[in-house]
Amino acid sequence: MFDALLIDKTDAGQTARITTLSPDQLPPGDVTVDVEWSTLNYKDALAITGASPVVRSFPMVPGIDLAGTVSESSHPDFRAGDKVVLNGWGVGEKHWGGLAGQARLSGDWLIPLPAGLSPRAAMAIGTAGYTAMLCVMALDRHGITPASGEIVVTGAAGGVGSIATALLAKRGYTVAAVTGRAAEADYLRSLGAASIIDRAELSAPGKPLARERWAGAVDVAGGIVLANVLAAMRYRGVVAACGLAAGMDLPTTVAPFILRGVTLAGIDSVMCPKPDRIKAWAHLAQELDLTLLDSMTTEIPLSDVIDTAPRFLQGQVRGRIVVPVGTAKT
């Protein structure tokens, strides 16, 4: 038996509770994992609170990330004892996820735990860090180098933004960190940000084209924030867009694209092909300062996840949240 966070739906609405499950209740899959660590991400918070229809079927164990040890496998790539990581693939939305002591999954969704990373460190990175690295790889792929100019990171105090800031600074980029929380300025500078921008500067409707400021961008916001970032890109600048915290709409014009040759690169972490995942995780294991990672990570027990989820959506959470699920086994 193991503890799990379970979301269900009744005539009265959606509920979330900590309960006890048995292995025979797990969904089908060719690999069973003893989950050691999971995380709380923005999408998990949406699922737990019901603020957005993230969950596609009920009941559902949320948790789009997990790291642990294979206990059973009929998949050719994995055997009992292997350390593995999972991000995305609809887990926690359509298939039971990582906020439980065990998970049964498709082995095609798993990758080996990268050398040099513990399961806890892998979850401190999680989907947020893996997405941040996909963004950094996109800038690199489109020819943006440290010599190209300043890179702006929106939502910089959040999970994706914090790790993107640290990764970019480590690679030698000059990073401008955008945040709506002035108190986080010292934290962002500790990650390597060269300057801090008040989110209010980018939150009101702006001109189709603004003064050229940035060579590249990592955007987690979408909406008006992304529109303003696009308008202020330098000639042939590149924006890696991976989030919608400020909205799904994009009130922009074609001007940045046809007058400045700006590239808007969409970043999807959920269905990203396995070779790209492995490459991203290899970069993370080699490049991310684990001491710095620990400084942006908060650990909470499984029992606190439900109460923490609303705070996440209200922008009251800094960096990454990890959950030691394995220690909750009964």
Description:
The chain is of the alpha/beta class. The chain has helices at residues 42-49, 119-141, 159-170, 185-191, 223-231, 255-259, 274-287, 290-295, 305-313; strands at 2-10, 13-21, 31-39, 65-73, 83-87, 102-105, 110-112, 151-153, 175-179, 195-198, 214-219, 233-241, 263-266, 297-299, 320-323. It folds into two domains: 2-113 and 300-328, Quinone Oxidoreductase, Chain A, domain 1; 127-266, Rossmann fold, CATH 3.40.50. It has nine helices and 15 strands. Strands 3, 4, 5, 6, 7, 14 and 15 form a seven-stranded mixed beta sheet that branches. It has a six-stranded parallel beta sheet with strand order 10-9-8-11-12-13, sandwiched between helices. Helix 9 (305-313) links the parallel strand 14 (297-299) and strand 15. The chain is globular.
